[in-house]
Amino acid sequence: MAQEVFVLGDFRLDPGRRLLLRNEQPIELKPKALEILCVLASARGAVVTKDALMSQVWPGLVVEENNIQVHVSALRKVLAGDSSGALHLMTVAGHGYRLLGIGLEPATVMTAVEPLRRRGPSVAVLPFAYLGDDPAQEYFAEGVVDDIITGLSRVRWLSVIARHSSFVFRGADVDLPRVAHELHADYLLHGSFRRSGDRIRVSARLTETAGGTEVWAERHERLLGDVFDLQDDIAASILGAIEPGLRRSEIERIRRKRPGDLDAYDLVLRALPHVYTLMPEGCAPAMPLLQRALDLEPGYALAHATLAWCHHVRFSRGGLDAAEREASIRHARAAVALGSDDALALAIGAFVIWFDAHDIAAAFDLFDRALLLSPSNVVALATSAVALAWSGRPALAIERARRALQLSPFDALRYLAYQALSGARFQSGDFERAEHDARLAVESCPGFSVPYAYLCAALVRVGKLDEARQTVRQMLGIDPGFCIGRFRVTVGVDDSVFNGFAMAWREARMPN
Asked: Which of the residues 23, 196, 408, 441 has the least number of beta carbons within 10 Å of its own beta carbon?
């Protein structure tokens, strides 16, 4: 395969030769600045965290964060010479950096996600501006918006951009046309949120991006206890604005059973960001929050599902403690029993049941039920894609992973979709693309050990044995107990798939 050459406005970046050219003339840059540019370009517009930059540009070293800032500043001075107006090196507050305006020379194009035909019109719900006096309450505003996204995702003819991608675009001065272009959205929902005492006030506007016209706007003020009705009312108004002749049954589809205790809902919102690290130390702060939520409301399906995921992480990456496995399965089964109309609870429950109970048929039935309820649910798409790849079903794994990445290219869990793509392509013998996707998985979540295992296997098969062994060392630095036997316990449901990886890992000297 030809080496990728990136087109950056007036510039050409050749990572293989470590060259930045303008009018075929080399541009002088310090080596680390050039490496940062290569990492950002390879992400193809996705956010690259500061931790990811440090781990790739200064592997194995502890460096000050201002090292990145110095080199980014130097890059901005050079790239400011672009005359196209399309090239931007953005700082994403609290996340990292994004490089926009990236192209590839035609002979070298290999995109991370091939385009798929969307299902009906597409909607992106942007983070609402929080207008309250207590910044610590901003997470609650995000939770309200996230549930509006969940409601919209239950409509089968609508494509809904997942929150982790739309939430990259924060701030009152966000450029709506650019956001619409970046997310391929036909409609944008944006607005503001205020929480004061026992009251909430929400202002929302729906914009059709093709003409930049505002098609619907409303202001709501409710008691805090009515927050779930408010979410459903906003989602229903959006559907009615997009499709005036919408049948009532489609409006009703957005509604689902909510927790009766608002404090339990609040605790789950606080827990979720910790869970998505998928490492034991990351999940630790979430577990007491989730247990308190269940103490308040024992029938809260999403709390059971999220706690099941935490116990799975502690089982699979914390020593294979049988008590953790038993707890993960118990909470997963409670989640699917209580959450028959909650796609997220069903998807997480299915994932845990697939990993820890190895009840393969039941897990895939639950994944299908989740996607029937919510075809745009990125968690259901990505987690089922991982399970499909390890179950020897690469074609469907690729299809679902690609859709997850299309719906949410900046998702916090996008590394799961990249893992599914890498695993499916590895077993199909497409090792170069397996390497490519595994690198994207590592870049998306450098603190998670599993993507390094995918990358290691692919590197062995493309003949990069030294780098594969270095990747093993990086993985063990993150997760010292990782070994082939431990990983087999959870993902080894199909020996014909797992053994192909295991042979490559042994060549790379991964512990047995």
From this structure: 23
State whether the Cα torsion 240-241-243-244 is positive or negative: positive
Burial of 107 (0-12, 13-18, 19+ CB in 10 A): exposed
Predicted TM-score of the model (pTM) = 0.62
Place of tokens 């697939």: 354
**In sequence order, what are the beta bridge partners of 190?**
205
Token pair, residue 349, equals 């429950």
Q: What are phi and psi of 98, to 5 degrees?
A: -135, 140
For residues 336 and 500, the answer to whether their CB atoms sit within 8 Å is no
Q: Where are the beta strands (DSSP E) in 199-312?
A: 199-208, 213-223
Q: Looking at the DSSP assignment, which residues form a beta bridge with residue 224?
A: none
Tokens, residue 99: 């490089």
Alpha-carbon distances, residue 244 vs 62, 123, 237, 490 (angstroms):
57, 16, 10, 48
Q: Is residue 279 very low, low, confident or very high in pLDDT (cuts 50, 70, 90)?
A: confident
Cβ-proximal residues to 493 (8 Å cutoff; 6+ apart), any chain: 354, 358, 360, 390, 391
What residue has token string 């007491």? 288
Chain-centroid distance of CA 238 in Å reads 25
Work out the number of other CB atoms within 10 angstroms of the CB of residue 468: 25
Phi, psi of 456 (to 5 degrees): -60, -50
CA atoms of 448 and 277, how far apart (whole Å): 7
CA dist list (Å): 61 to 51, 281, 339, 456, 476: 12, 22, 46, 21, 15
Strand order in the sheet with 19-22: 25-26, 19-22, 11-14, 6-8, 102-104
The overall average pLDDT reported for the chain is 81
Q: Where are the beta strands (DSSP E) in 143-236?
A: 159-160, 187-196, 199-208, 213-223
